[in-house]
Each structure stands twice: as C-alpha cells, then as structure tokens.
C-alpha cells in the first residue's frame, strides 16, 4: 500500500529532527574540546580517542538496529536513541572525570548508532524511488545541521554557564525531541511486528549481507575513507584554528558552523543532482575529489589567511566531506534486497563507523608525531583522491560492460 504524501513528509520531518539532535550530541564535546580537555586535565589531542569511543558504541548499535526496528518500530527506536544520547551527555556533565567521560561517550554512540538504520527503514517505505537521493540527502542534512547547532550554540553556552550547562542543555534538547515524536509513532510505526523474536546471536549478519553484494561492499569501503575525512574535519577544526591559527573558541566555532552549513546545502544539492543528472556513484567520485583538494588547502592555511577565503574553503569542505552521506545511503537502500534496507544500512554503517573510529585516532597520532594538525589534514587527501579514482574507474566499467 502506498503511503499518503502527508505520511512521507511527516516521516522526513521527524527523521531530520532526530538526526540533527543526536548529531549535535556527538559534536558537543568537539565543539568545546580545548575547554573540555582543560577541565579533565588532559591533552586536546585525546578528542580523537573520545570520538573513537563514541563510534565504537555506534558501530555495535547499528548492527543491532535491524531486529529492534522491525519489532518496536523506527520511531520508537529513534526515541530510545535520543534518550540514551541525553543520558551520555548528562553523565559527562555531572561526573567530570576521565572514566565517566568515556562511558558517557560510549552511551552517546549507542544512542546515535540506530538512528540512521531506523530512518532508512522508514524512508525506504515512504519515499518514491525517483526522489530517493534527494529525500535521503535532506534527512542526512541533519548531521551537518547538528554540527551547525553545536558550533553556533555550544561555545556560547560554555561561556555563559561552563561545560556542565552546555552538556545539559543539549541533553534537554534530545529529550524534548523524543517527546515531540511520540504522537507520530502510531501511524509511522504501523509496520512494526511486536511478536518478532529478538535475536542478537549474530551481529555479523548485516555485515555478511553487505559482503555478499559486490556493489554494497565496494560502497562501504569508500565510506570508510569518507567518514574519516568528515569526522576529522568536525573533530579537529576548532582545535586546529584555536591552536595553530590563533582563533578564539567562539570564532573557531563559527567557522565550524560555516563548514556544517556547507554540508547542509551540499547534501540537498548533491541529492538533487544525483536524482536528475549524474549517477550516484559518479556524484560520489566528484565529492571525493573535492575532499582531497580541501584537505590539502586546509593544511596550507596560515594565521594571516583572508577570512573570506577561509570561509569559502570551509563551505566547500563541508559540502563535500559532510555532503556525501545522503547520496550514499540512498544508493545502499536501492541496492539492498527488498525488506532489508535497515539491515543493509546497519552493515554498511558499521564499516562507515569504523572509519570514524580509526580516522580521528590516526589523525591525532600523526598530528602529535609531527606536532602539527596540518600533517593530519594533508595525509587525508591521499585516500580521498584514491576513492575518487576508484569510483570513476568502476563507473567506466559499468558503462562499457
């Protein structure tokens, strides 16, 4: 049965809001990393380890999402994710110690992990095929939108009330979103199967699904690199601007917001282009090339670089490094076997999240070894360029086959 248009728009609106709030939860600590590091008495380079813990939890939760979504419904699982993110933020706020920080980070990841598989399940059911890339891209614009909110509000909240107030304010926002979603649950979760048994005996099932499909496996491998670039941009930009270029935290947060605005715009534009004119995998190849160029340009920034040039670079960097996800997820949902969109998305995201786990850690180690964040951004350019080349090569083989 084809859902009514109102159901489709409602599904898009609530999944976008949920995505934005959990993304803001993930990026709250990076948006105030120097102050958070000072309060914990650790080096700001440990922010990479924090992100690794967040996405370790997300990776596990994404693999578990499939059966949970089928049994309880996409909206209920999204609400649960919001609440768990809020709990992680509250723990960080109320127990300012390093062990609690990592437990809180893991909880935020567990809350974040099932959100995209849940929304993919819902949108795959409610979205016409010819609008898939655009709709998935609009929903995924919630990720950079959450970054915009983190960059715009968290430093100001930090100055007004300290780290505790900033963390608790974002936690409250997640809880409010969970409450707002409740009236929408009955119609949007109408396909849930309450009697479906839960079986987590094999978390590798979604991974096997992806590995058994050559195109899905190839896309997942590219997402490993793309996600590393995306998260290194979001995780280290404020610290890089603050420590290497002399920016204040509020100004650096504003630049981060600019990059994330680029991501919001980019996701929607790329989704529209992928639906209308350019095949999704060629669109991803273009974005990989832009990522490589922007990584190199960011590494070359100097303290006296003109602000308009910096902001323009950040818009393009954000548009590419955080703009690829919607096109990617729509392609994953399209390639997935019928009825397995959430499982295919969960398996693909496990690989994506692995890039998020390892990327910032390796970035931090490399930057520490060279005593410069420039080395980290420069190193990211090479694998991004390789992904672009591979996507173009594969597209040519498909065309000539």
UniProtKB/TrEMBL annotation:
Transmembrane domains' residue ranges: 47-70, 82-112, 152-181, 219-238, 244-270, 282-303, 309-330, 342-363, 375-392
Molecular function per GO: transmembrane transporter activity
Superkingdom of origin organism: Bacteria
Keyword Isomerase among UniProt keywords: no
Domain Major facilitator superfamily (MFS) profile: start-end pairs: 11-401
Entry keywords, A to Z: Membrane, Transmembrane, Transmembrane helix
InterPro entries noted in UniProt: MFS (IPR011701), MFS-Transporter (IPR052952), MFS_dom (IPR020846), MFS_trans_sf (IPR036259)
Gene3D superfamilies: MFS general substrate transporter like domains (1.20.1250.20)
A Pfam family hit: MFS_1
Protein name: MFS transporter
Organism: Ramlibacter henchirensis
């Amino acid at each position: 049965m084809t859902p009514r248009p109102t159901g489709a728009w409602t599904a898009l609106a609530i999944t976008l809001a949920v995505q934005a709030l959990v993304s803001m939860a993930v990026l709250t600590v990076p948006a105030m990393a120097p102050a958070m590091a000072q309060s914990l008495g650790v080096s700001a380079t440990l922010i990479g380890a924090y992100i690794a813990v967040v996405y370790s939890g997300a990776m596990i939760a994404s693999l578990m999402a499939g059966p949970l979504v089928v049994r309880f419904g996409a909206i209920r699982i999204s609400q649960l994710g919001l609440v768990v993110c809020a709990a992680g933020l509250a723990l960080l706020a109320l127990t300012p110690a390093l062990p609690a920080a990592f437990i809180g980070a893991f909880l935020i990841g567990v809350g974040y992990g099932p959100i995209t598989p849940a929304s993919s399940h819902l949108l795959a059911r409610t979205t016409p095929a010819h609008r898939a890339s655009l709709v998935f891209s609009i929903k995924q614009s919630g990720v950079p939108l959450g970054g915009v909110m983190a960059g715009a509000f968290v430093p100001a909240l930090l100055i007004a009330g300290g780290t505790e107030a900033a963390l608790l304010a974002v936690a409250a926002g997640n809880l409010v979103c969970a409450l707002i979603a409740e009236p929408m649950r009955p119609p949007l979760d109408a396909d849930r199967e309450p009697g479906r048994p839960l079986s987590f005996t094999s978390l590798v099932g979604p991974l096997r699904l992806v590995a058994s499909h050559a195109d899905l496996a190839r896309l997942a491998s590219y997402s490993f690199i793309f996600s590393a670039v995306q998260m290194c941009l979001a995780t280290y930009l404020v610290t890089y601007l603050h420590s290497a270029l002399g920016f204040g935290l509020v100004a650096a947060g504003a630049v981060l917001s600019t990059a994330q605005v680029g991501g919001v715009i980019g996701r929607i534009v790329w989704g529209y282009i992928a639906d209308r004119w350019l095949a999704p995998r060629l669109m991803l190849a273009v974005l990989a090339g832009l990522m490589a160029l922007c990584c190199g340009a960011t590494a070359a920034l100097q303290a006296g670089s003109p602000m308009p040039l910096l902001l323009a670079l950040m818009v393009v960097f954000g548009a590419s490094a955080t703009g690829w996800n919607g096109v990617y997820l729509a392609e994953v949902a399209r390639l997935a076997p019928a009825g397995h969109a959430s499982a295919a998305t969960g398996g693909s995201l496990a690989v994506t999240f692995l890039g998020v786990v390892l990327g910032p850690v390796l970035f931090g180690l490399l930057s520490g070894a060279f005593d410069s964040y420039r080395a980290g951004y420069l190193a990211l350019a090479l694998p991004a360029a390789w992904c672009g080349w591979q996507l173009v090569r594969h597209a040519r083989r498909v065309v000539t086959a």
